[in-house]
Design a protein that fits this description.
The protein is an all-alpha fold. The chain has two domains: 50 residues; 234 residues, MetI-like fold. 76% of the residues lie in helices and 0% in strands. The chain is built from ten helices and no strands. Helix 1 crosses helix 10, helix 2 packs antiparallel against helix 7 and helix 7 runs antiparallel to helix 10. It starts with a helix and ends in a 7-residue tail after the last helix.
């Protein structure tokens, strides 16, 4: 009897082992197939980005030189020149919009995350910010034209900065709110337990902890502002001269330069449009990479 039991034992475990191997093989095969699918879809999604970058480098890289950034834009049919005034103008307009949008968006985020809660005013502000994120940029330009350009009587860098600020505020506000809400509640409770007030907790605990997320939102807003053209056509217009420090005069910008030169019948101006596109994409890329390194935590370095 004992010998019979011993001889039957392997037969009883054999099908189970085979079944486990079959299930394991199926799981391994499914895992491999899904991994290949995920990698393939990722490469497919990245293909348009690298295609655009490749085209910009090929078409616009030929004109990259120091003179491109130190000379004014050429007139119709003229050779030479550069995009120096457009680069300076873009930085000026973005600086103005950042000075206007960052305080409003950030303070609004602090109110929504730490003080507003589910109050009616906070709900209304949050809803308005979400609506503004989908606002067509041309409407922001029309609004800035009606409120700033018509009031001052001229196209100006200030009007362009106001139009861009309208587009930046909701992005800064919503992303900053998410970053502030992501701070662990245990840190706040610990601060309250040590006798800190709500204002002290927000200033010394919540905001420093949420800085990486806040900066990410600011970079996203800057990237959107730099690439907009329609608002600047209604507000800042364009200028063939250097910025002289007067915010009440028209100013050049890379996006409007690209818009004007891309449809030009002159080959040199079309080439400058490609070079300006490459410079604009490079500026946005540098800002994003800088933000990634600046917001890395010590344990990630």
């Amino acid at each position: 009897m004992a010998n019979a039991a011993l001889t039957q034992a392997p037969a009883a475990t054999g099908p189970r082992t085979s079944l486990r191997r079959t299930i394991g093989n199926r799981r391994t095969l499914g895992n491999s197939a899904l991994t290949v699918l995920a990698v393939s879809l990722t490469l497919l999604a990245m293909f348009p980005l690298f295609s655009v970058l490749y085209m910009l480098i090929v078409r616009g890289g030929a004109l990259l030189s120091p003179s491109l950034f130190t000379e004014l834009t050429p007139g119709a049919g003229m050779e030479g020149g550069g995009i120096g005034n457009a680069v300076v103008g873009t930085l000026v307009v973005v600086a103005i919009s950042t000075c206007l949008a960052l305080p409003l968006g950030f303070l609004g985020a602090v109110y929504l995350a730490e003080y507003g809660g589910d109050r009616k005013l906070a709900t209304l502000v949050r809803f308005a910010a979400k609506v503004l994120t989908g606002l067509p940029s041309i409407l922001a330009g029309v609004f800035a034209y009606a409120t700033v350009v018509v009031t001052t009587g001229s196209f100006s860098a200030l009007a362009g900065g106001c139009a861009m600020a309208i587009l930046m505020i909701p992005t800064v506000m919503l992303t900053s709110e998410s970053a502030l809400l992501a701070v662990p509640s245990k840190m706040k409770m610990a601060a309250f337990g040590m006798g800190a007030t709500r204002a002290q907790t927000v200033l010394r605990i919540v905001i420093p902890t949420a800085i990486p997320g806040i900066l990410t939102g600011v970079m996203l807003a800057l990237a959107r502002a730099m690439g907009e053209t329609a608002p600047l056509l209604f507000t800042a217009l364009f200028s063939d001269y250097w910025f002289e420090g007067k915010l009440t005069q028209p100013i050049a910008s890379l996006s409007v330069l690209i818009y004007n030169f891309a449809g030009s019948p002159f080959e040199h101006q079309v080439s400058l449009a490609w070079a300006a596109s490459l410079v604009l994409v490079s500026i946005v890329l540098i800002l994003n990479v800088t933000a990634q390194f600046a917001t890395r935590r010590p344990e990630e370095q």
